Amino acid sequence: MSVEGIARALVNIYKGNVDIDHEVEEHLFQETSKIFNEAISEGYANAVENNTPLPNDTFRSSFKHSADVFSAFRVHRMQQDIAAQMIDEDGHVKPFQKFVKDVSPYIEHRNRAWLRTEYDTAILRAQNAAEWKMFEAEKDVYPNLEWINSTSPNPGADHMVFWGTVRPVDDPFWNGHKPGDRWNCKCELQQSDSDVTAAPLSDGKSDPARGLESNPAKAEELFSQKHPYYPQSCMSCPFAGNKLMALAMDLAGRKNCNRCGKVRKSVAETEKKSNRREYERLKKEPQYKDVQYDKKSGGVKATHNGHNEQTEKTKLGVSSAELEKHCQDILFKKGHRVIFVDEKVKDSKGRFLTQLDMLLDGKPCDIASVTTNRRHYGMVLVSKNKQIHRYNSREDITTTADTLCLYFHKASMYDEKRVLRSINYYLHFRKNDGKLIDHNIKTIHCVVNGNDEIFTFSVE
Ligand SMILES: [Zn+2]
């Protein structure tokens, strides 16, 4: 977590700018959810490296949401603990400096050891989720799964009782126990056509840890709602609001935080607040123009003065800069943060550095406007792939890009089949030496003029 984010959160909490009982401190939330979303990306990347396909968009969006819900409850707990440090033994509010000093060891502890374990486990859960999807898809060929020993040099006794167990993919055994259901577990699951073994009983010390009981692929969640950060009941939930509803949900046994509309609303409101703050910040920066905030959706847009404003007309009779702006507007009105960046950045030798158009929700991303009616747009992907590769190779880049926005100003030029054909062309495109190109683009958003929906495709 960044020192700046934590410092701003401490000021916010100390000044009482955030209702620590029913809201989520936005700086802590932004930092936390970013970390867990990075962990998920890393888990997927590990899976893909082992030839496991990326899970589909629907799954990825539920999984991401569950990470945001986990982050919201984590921050809620943290802000309560932080606020408790504001009061001295006599019940008086401490001076700000004393408060910061007293709360530092807690923050240090929370952010080092705990976060590390949670982060590493999040990577594993994402990777395991992708693998489980593949196990299910391939169970005709590999009907069974085998529990593989921990590869850790100091595996401990956890899970030893289950090592070597072979059970069918659909066997209920895997609902009760599986690799990754204890913190820092390094066991693995492997597809197998060996004979099934008996299902061992747990020895008590190999039971799943709280928060890791669920199968991340089946439950579509990063952590289960039994994790201690989550409330035990809707009645004790900081975001529940209406007591009657909360009690009824509890009595009916319907609590499901990772799917709950109330929690979803809190997360969305926190994100809106942090977008609003981003807007306030950009508005004060003289190098940005056209800085706007959309109250309804929470979207933010801004354009750096160094952003190219090419005026040459495209085949549609509109300049490419104008097309980019249209695309920006649609994303903005859908609640995204769309910051057009400085394209005149030079290196130490005075050469222009490869740049991408924008930061979309904080991630670098380029826009390609489709202006001609083709059977597919594969060559656009190939050339943008090169640009993204050059961008990611820049020494100063810490957040790499893997996303492209295709903008269809003329809605009739968009259709799903053409996009799929384009992806297919791109994936099979070969260089002059006959080798496939490296694929830097992993996600394509299609933004269509006049259409409310943004169509997202995974490139795989
Ligand atoms: Zn294990």
Report on the structure:
- This protein has 2 domains: 3-263, no CATH class; 285-458, Trna Endonuclease, Chain: A, domain 1.
- The chain is an alpha/beta fold.
- The strands form 2 sheets. Strands 4-5-6-7-8-9-10-11 form an 8-stranded mixed beta sheet, sandwiched between helices.
- The protein has 11 helices and 11 strands.
- Helix content is 41%, strand content 12%.
- Bound molecules: zinc ion.
- Zinc ion binds at residues 150, 158-159, 179, 182, 185, 187.
What secondary-structure arrangement, pairings included, does this model have?
Layout: H1 3-14, H2 26-49, H3 57-84, H4 96-137, E1 144-148, E2 166-168, H5 173-176, E3 188-192, H6 216-219, H7 243-251, H8 261-283, E4 288-293, E5 300-304, H9 320-333, E6 337-340, E7 358-360, E8 363-370, H10 378-393, E9 403-408, H11 416-428, E10 443-448, E11 454-458
Provide the structure class: alpha/beta
Shape field: globular
Percent of sequence in beta strands? 5-15%
Instruction: Give Rg in angstroms.
Output: 25 Å
- What's the assembly state of these chains? single chain
What is the rounded distance between the termini? 32 Å
The figure for the number of domains is: 2
Number of helices: 11
Query: How many β-strand stretches?
Result: 11
Give the cofactors and ligands.
zinc ion
